[in-house]
Amino acid sequence: MSLSLADLQYLYQLPFNDLIKQAHEVYKKHHDFNTVHLCGSLSIKTGSCPENCAYCPQSVHYKTYVEKESLLDPNDVLKTAVRAKAHGVTHFCLGAAWSYAPKGNAFQKVLEIVRKVHSTGLQVCCSLGSISEEQAQALLEAGCTTYNYNLDTSPEFYPKIITTRTFESRHQTLQIIRKSNLKISCGGILGMGESIEDRLKLIYLISQLSPQPEMVPLNALVAIEGTPLGEKTFIDPLEYIRIVAIARIAMPRTIIAMAAGRYKMSFETQALAFFSGANAIYIGERILTTSTPDLSADLNMLAKLGMNAYENHIDIRQ
Ligand code: SF4
Q1: Is residue 113 assigned to a domain?
Q2: 306 C-alpha to ligand 1 centroid (Å)
Q3: What is the pTM of this model?
Q4: How far is the CA of 129 from the centre of ligand 1 (A)?
Q5: For the segment 208-246, what is each residue's pLDDT rounded down to a tens digit?
Q6: How far is the CA of 314 from the centre of ligand 1 (A)?
Q7: Whose CA is nearest to atom 5 of ligand 1?
Q8: How many angstroms separate the alpha carbon of residue 53 from the centre of ligand 1?
Q9: What is the domain count for the chain?
Q10: Distance between CA 191 and CA 196 in Å, rounded?
């Protein structure tokens, strides 16, 4: 049964221990709670994005540390994917800083990249901006299983973060992706100055997608110098965990990923997030252009917690 926004508001005001206990019960019922999904990611085309997302160092509107790079060579992407797989990654995300996935040769090159990564046995996720129905179909046929397209925040807060596109257009693209049979990865960013209400609305709207997304990446804003949000302080860790717990209760079967910002979280914060229902992390050098913790620190953390990584991708609908 899907939860209403009022249900999520009720959960939010519970004492912290009551909330995470409830989330843990839901988590235990639907997942192997001592096992996590290891995800990898690679920016296959970096920088010069025409959108003005206030958190993003890849926007052409801001002067940041990011150096632009054109679309990578498929064989170089393949080498990175093979390395990621050797580290235990099962799910590999290809990100590109575009508002719309390109047409013509550039898109053919993307399809070649997808085919090569798919040939390694990794689950391929693409994050290429808005796409047409034909492109979604072509990606699916090339071996892409999941498309990442985040709602970012609530519809009310959205115009304070991005003005070059609308929240409604995001929703429309999600419908196109759904029609194609690609699975959806859809999350957001916490700590951009949004209210609690905005956070709950984001989780509510994501949970209302039907069927619910395969994966929900929950990013904690990493403030980047040169962007309009460059001065923001990092989100209170317990607030982040509350949202993880509420997302877990609202979406019992979904994979909930601790995404960008995890490298700024203590080991203890991450342990509590795992307890509350987070069951995926991005490992390796970076999540697109944002740092991740050191790989050996991650493996050490999982060992200390007695946690394992899934050896194969698990389809949440089976
Ligand atoms: S978040 Fe994506 S769409 Fe927004 S500026 Fe960055 S690369 Fe472009």
Answers
A1: yes
A2: 37
A3: 0.91
A4: 8
A5: 998 899 999 999 999 999 999 999 999 999 999 999 999
A6: 29
A7: 59
A8: 6
A9: 1
A10: 10
**CA dihedral for 288, 290, 295, 300, sign (positive or negative):** negative
Domain hosting residue 201, numbered range? 5-309
pLDDT beyond 50 at 317: no
Residue 317 lies in a domain: no
Give residue-wise pLDDT tens across range 264-311. Answer: 999 999 999 999 999 999 887 665 666 666 788 888 899 999 998 887
The radius of gyration of the chain's CA atoms, rounded to the nearest angstrom, is 18
Report which ligand 1 atom has the smallest distance to the Cα of 59: 5
Residues at CB less than 6 angstroms from ligand 1 = 49, 51, 53, 56, 58-59, 97, 99
How far, CA to CA in Å, does 297 sit from each of 81, 92, 205, 241, 294? 21, 20, 34, 21, 5
**Residue indicated by tokens 């071996």:** 143
- Residue 155 has which token pair? 């519809």
Name residues whose C-beta falls within 8 Å of residue 247's C-beta, 6 or more positions apart in sequence: 203, 206, 207, 216, 218, 254, 256, 277
